[in-house]
Amino acid sequence: MKQFLLSGGLLLLAITGISINMNGQTKKYPSLNHMALYVVDLKISTDFYRDIIGLETMDEPFKDGRHSWFKVGENSHVHVISGAKKATEHDKNTHLCFSVPDMDAFVATLKEHKIAFEDWPGKAGAITKRVDGVHQIYLRDPDGYWLEINDDKY
């Protein structure tokens, strides 16, 4: 009986140790820290991402007048950096995607500010409904970067 209790105790200790070790792991894969966008006019881009897209500004360490940082989710950021000589053409397949809680309200904001948007095939003012029910639109920021906006709830 003593042998059984000792073996059981060691087994329990081993399982607990494995469990603690597994729960103590903080990362199993890389996480996205930030995306950087190189822009022509910092004020125009900052206003766009803050006032139209609705991103929250955050402190940036450089204090050189060339950077705006925005919080995206718990641990990710968008860094907007001025210095680009001109806006460039980008393919729609290369885009950033932001989820919004209310697609109708977001579309109303775009219309209020006369910002063009389209569905995936390119129909102006249209909204795509994916097979999973998520609604999505596409638009360009002031520097021509494509953005997808959807109402995915995860």
TrEMBL record:
GO molecular function, one term: lyase activity
UniProt cross-references to InterPro entries, sorted A to Z: Glyas_Bleomycin-R_OHBP_Dase (IPR029068), Glyas_Fos-R_dOase_dom (IPR004360), GlyoxalaseI/FosfomycinResist (IPR050383), VOC_core (IPR037523)
Record-linked Pfam families: Glyoxalase
Keywords noted in UniProt: Lyase
Tagged with keyword Lyase: yes
Domain VOC: 31-152
Protein known as: Lactoylglutathione lyase
Organism for this UniProt entry: Chitinophaga arvensicola
